[in-house]
Structures are given as structure tokens and as C-alpha cells.
Design brief:
About 15% of the residues lie in helices and about 20% in strands. The protein is built from 8 helices and 23 strands. The chain has an 8-stranded parallel beta sheet with strand order 9-8-7-6-5-4-13-11, covered by helices on one side. Strands 14-16-17-22-19 form a 5-stranded antiparallel beta sheet, with no helix packed on it. It has a 5-stranded mixed beta sheet with strand order 15-23-18-21-20, with no helix packed on it. It is globular and about 60 Å long.
């Protein structure tokens, strides 16, 4: 629900005119099946009727200001990263994007021309085409995820005043036509994490089954899904849940418990899908795709239940698992992840993997995320974009079905402990560049008039000739805060080119970053992370001090 990434649109005709249709290499048999996929009861099956289980990973970035995959700035080339994904056993990639990346003239930024010279000058869609083509050669599948209307941030509804529903649908139809005939691209995750906004009875967020055309996500999913199927009847349509079925936040803020309801993760509540199913004009194309997270994202009440983790299967059954168990539709858990910094989270991940089942008949999933720069979860890769986090991989690996063209899943090294010590901060990774010293800056924490405090820790996460990626972790003090401002001065003339998860203000070497609407409020001791890409020459020293002011 609260996970955040560190980090007029084109009409269908206009976009189609600016891109080259790519046919690619069809996905191979076995791991991800043959031809296009469809559904049969709670199973996903291929063109021969064989059951297929998607066991994949999210590789994000195309939904951010970079408009392309994060990690293309790293020393590890993009093809090597795909090779590693396949060798680890991930057979599917879920690709988040925003409509900004599809605009005519959209430019991909922060691409390392040393490690990825074949991507120089390519548009976001052209880079995606290359990923799709190579993934297809390895027998992998691609799911496209319309993550946000713009790169600015997540939205409760699937449209905004600047990106109306008509643009959302026309861009989806254009993508469906663009990849027509390419069986590597198997479907559309229509919109990421529709969720509640406002309080009942004055709800303004996405509802399920409420009948309001402007807010009922179930009805919007039908409109978009059927529009896509009208031009590409072979795609699967992935539909996420909401957070609260009414579309209104249920809590004590309105001091009226009489209208509270059962709410879950953003995109994770499909309790009303049995009563109000998504109706598509092409049979056997619907896959429900909930999201599920651990305490590193938000400490839901069920994590503190005395019966934990024995209580979790019933919770999963209630929110989305019943759709699978009652043979109503397949489940593909589109996002789930954790830093593993807490043993509660390790248990959660182990139990969730068991719940989804093993072998080809288990539920499909795409883990969040491949990227190490997901602020609340981290990734399967560490900060160098090449080293695998074996603690996470060791839990997931037994459930992976590798693609044909990839190798069997890589087993974790036996000398690596499968757990993460809770005494190690998940954000305090060593710098990827041994020439950066020191990798982490100290933080000053001036108090606000009401005693609220925060700290900020600056880190060089990755460095390459002329450029680098920085990360700053903001942590609330002993009291909850509602907002934060971080300031520092670069010592060697560095500059920031892109920043995500914050609002940037820079004057010469002085940098100020303030929170966005969704990551300013932090509980006592809670933290959030923002990241940026920058340039440097000569020396990339870290600031001597970084201040954080809370409000």
C-alpha cells in the first residue's frame, strides 16, 4: 500500500506513427509454454492447453522520470542482467511504465554508454523493444504494467485531469497493436494499485462494485480490458484489486467507526470480485493480480496477531486466494517484497511462498523487485546491480520455474546465511565504487519547535565515468513527523540530473529536497528513501554534512 519507488499524451495514431512494430522471437515451450496464453478455471495455459506458471520479477524504471529501466546506468550491461534473471529461474518480467514514457519525443535518461552502447539514442519504447526481443530469445514472457498516469507519482484513480481515461485506453490499444504477433508480450496489467481516498461517506478513491462510473475500478477494468481485446484478443488482462471496496479510507480519522470496512493493501483487496466479477468480451482472458507486502512497507494489524503466522492463510483467502481456491480465475500476485530486515518479514515471505504453492500448478507471481533501489523493499540485486541477495533468493528459488533458454535455478551458496541480521540497516549498503570515500555522510538533525526530529543518511549507491546514483534515507526520530526537508552542499561541483521520491530545489552546489505527498508522514523510527542520478568530474566526495528538518 505505502511502497514507493526511489525514483496531453499521444493518441493511438500518433504513437503508432513514431514506433516500429517488433515481431520478436516467440517464447519457447516448457517453462512459459508455447504461443499465446489463456485461462482455464484457475490455471493459465498455453496454446496447447499445457499449464503454465509465471514465476517472475518486476524491473521498474520506465514509470519514473528516467522513462526507462533503472540499472541501465550500472556497469552490468542490460543483457547480462537478463541472463542473470533467467539463470536464477525467473521466467517473466513485469514492466511498469507511465504514459509519459509513451509521449512522442520521450527520452530515456541515465543510460551508461560504456556498458550499454547499443542503447545510445533510443527512445523508451525502442529500449523496451530490445528487452522484449532478448527476453523472448530466452523463453521469458513480458507483462506490461501501466503503473502511473505520469512519472510524478501513484494515483488513487486510473485517470487524472491531465491524463483522462480516453488517453489511458488509447495508449493501451497502441501498445497492444505495437506488439501484435509477438508472443513474448502476453498481457496488460491495466493500472497499478487503485486505492481509496477520502473518508466514508465522502469517498473519492477507487471502489469495487459501487456502480459509480467515475470511481468503480471493476467497471473501468472492463472498459479498458475490452478495448484492448478488441485489437489484441490474445492478450491476458491482469486486474488488480483496490484497497477499500467503498473507495473511502476506513480509520478513526473521521471519528465514525460505523462506516469503517475491511481494507487491505493498495491493489490487494479483491473481496468483492466474486460478487462483482470483471466481465470481458473474450472468454478465458482474465487474471486477478493482487499485491501483498511485509512490515518493511507497512505494519498491518495482522502481523501483531498472537497467532501469527498461522493467521495469514485465512487473510490471504479472504482478500484474494478464494478466487483461486474456488476455481473462479487464476491469481498472479503482481507485487510482493520485503527488505528481510525483520524476522517477521522472513517468516511472512516463507509462508506466502508456501501458500502460493509449488510446481506448475501453483499461483503465478512477479516479485518486487529486481531493482535494489526500491526504498521499502530493496531488490533481488544488491547496489552494484550484479550481486544477488542470497537471503531473498534462497526463499524464492524453490518455487521458480526457469524459462527454456535459461539454466536451472541457481542455488544459493551454502556458506551464505539465509537470514538478514536485524542489526544491519537495509539501506546501509557499501558503495559500488571503491574509489568513493567515505560512501556515507553524517547527518545533522535540528529539532523543530515542537520537538520533532529526523535524520538523513547520504550514500553513493553506484558510480560510473561521469555519473553516479545517490540515495538518501530519511528517518523520523522518537516522534512521528508529517514532513521533512533535507539539505546538503556538494563538495566537488557535482549536480543532480534526475531525482525520485522527493521534490528537488538546487542552487549551485546547494541542494534541498522535500517530501512528496505520500512519503512525508513517518511514524516514530520509520524511514523512507529518495534517490537521484548525478554527474561528477575529478572527485565524487560525499557532503560533509546532511541536515534533516522535520515538521
Amino acid at each position: 500500500m505505502y511502497r514507493r519507488i526511489l525514483g496531453g499524451l499521444a493518441t493511438a495514431a500518433a504513437m503508432a506513427a513514431t514506433v516500429l512494430v517488433v515481431t520478436g522471437t516467440p517464447a519457447n515451450a516448457a517453462g512459459t509454454g508455447t504461443g499465446y496464453l489463456h485461462t482455464s478455471g484457475n490455471k493459465i495455459v498455453d496454446s496447447t492447453g499445457a499449464t503454465v506458471r509465471l514465476t517472475g520479477i518486476n524491473w521498474f524504471g520506465m514509470e519514473t522520470d528516467n522513462k526507462t529501466f533503472h540499472g541501465l546506468w550500472a556497469n552490468n550491461p542490460w543483457k547480462s542482467q537478463l541472463d542473470l534473471m533467467a539463470n536464477l529461474g525467473y521466467n517473466t518480467i513485469r514492466v511498469p511504465f507511465s504514459d509519459d514514457a509513451l509521449k512522442p519525443g520521450a527520452q530515456a535518461t541515465s543510460v551508461n554508454t560504456y556498458s550499454n552502447p547499443d542503447l545510445i539514442g533510443l527512445s523508451p519504447l525502442q529500449i523496451l523493444d530490445k528487452i522484449v526481443d532478448y527476453a523472448g530469445q530466452k523463453g521469458m514472457r513480458i507483462i506490461l504494467d501501466r503503473h502511473r498516469p505520469t512519472s510524478a507519482g501513484q494515483t488513487a484513480l486510473w485517470y487524472t485531469s491531465g491524463v483522462p481515461e480516453s488517453t489511458w485506453i488509447s495508449n493501451w490499444k497502441s501498445l497492444a497493436q505495437h506488439y501484435a504477433g509477438n508472443t513474448t508480450v502476453i498481457g496488460a496489467d491495466l493500472h497499478n494499485e487503485p486505492h481509496a481516498d477520502g473518508t466514508n461517506p465522502n469517498a473519492t478513491g477507487s471502489c469495487w462494485g459501487c456502480g459509480d462510473q467515475s470511481r468503480d475500478w471493476r467497471l473501468a477494468a472492463e472498459r479498458a480490458g475490452n478495448a484492448i481485446l478488441s485489437v489484441q484478443p490474445n492478450w491476458l488482462i491482469f486486474v488488480e484489486g483496490v484497497s477499500c471496496p467503498s473507495g473511502g479510507l476506513s480509520n478513526t480519522w473521521d471519528n465514525d467507526p460505523s462506516n469503517d470496512e475491511d481494507c487491505g493493501w493498495w491493489g490487494g483487496n479483491l473481496t468483492k470480485a466474486g460478487q462483482f466479477p470483471v466481465r470481458l468480451n473474450v472468454a478465458n482472458r482474465l487474471v486477478y493480480s493482487p499485491h501483498e507486502y511485509a512490515t518493511s512497507v507497512f505494519r498491518q494489524t495482522w502481523f501483531d496477531d498472537p497467532s501469527y503466522p498461522a493467521n495469514m492463510p485465512a487473510i490471504w483467502d479472504k482478500y484474494w486466494g478464494y478466487l483461486y481456491k474456488q476455481n473462479i480465475a487464476p491469481i498472479m500476485v503482481g507485487e510482493f517484497g520485503t527488505t528481510l530486515a525483520n524476522n517477521v518479514d522472513k517468516v511472512w515471505l516463507q509462508e506466502l511462498m508456501k501458500y502460493m504453492g509449488s510446481g506448475v500448478n501453483g499461483m503465478s507471481f512477479t516479485y518486487w523487485s529486481w531493482n535494489p533501489n526500491s526504498g521499502d523493499t530493496g531488490g533481488i540485486l544488491k547496489d552494484d546491480w550484479a550481486t544477488v541477495d542470497q537471503a531473498k533468493q534462497s526463499i524464492i528459488s524453490p518455487y521458480l520455474i526457469p524459462p527454456v533458454g535459461g539454466n536451472p535455478p541457481v542455488s544459493p551458496s551454502p556458506q551464505v546465511s539465509p537470514s538478514v541480521s536485524p542489526s544491519v540497516s537495509p539501506s546501509a549498503s557499501p558503495s559500488a565504487s571503491p574509489s568513493v570515500s567515505p560512501p556515507v555522510s553524517p547527518s545533522a538533525s535540528p529539532s523543530s519547535p515542537d520537538g520533532k526530529t529526523c535524520t538523513a543518511t547520504y550514500k553513493v549507491a553506484n558510480q560510473y565515468p561521469g555519473g553516479f546514483q545517490g540515495e538518501v534515507t530519511v528517518k523520523a526520530g522518537s516522534s512521528a513527523i508529517s514532513g521533512w526537508t533535507v539539505k546538503w552542499a556538494f563538495p566537488n561541483g557535482q549536480s543532480v540530473s534526475q531525482l525520485w521520491n522527493g521534490t528537488l530545489s538546487a542552487s549551485g552546489s546547494n541542494v534541498t529536497v522535500t517530501n512528496l505527498s505520500y512519503n512525508g508522514a513517518l511514524g516514530a523510527g520509520a524511514s523512507t528513501t529518495f534517490g537521484f542520478n548525478g554527474s561528477w568530474s575529478g572527485n565524487n566526495g560525499v557532503p560533509s554534512s546532511v541536515s534533516c528538518t522535520a515538521s
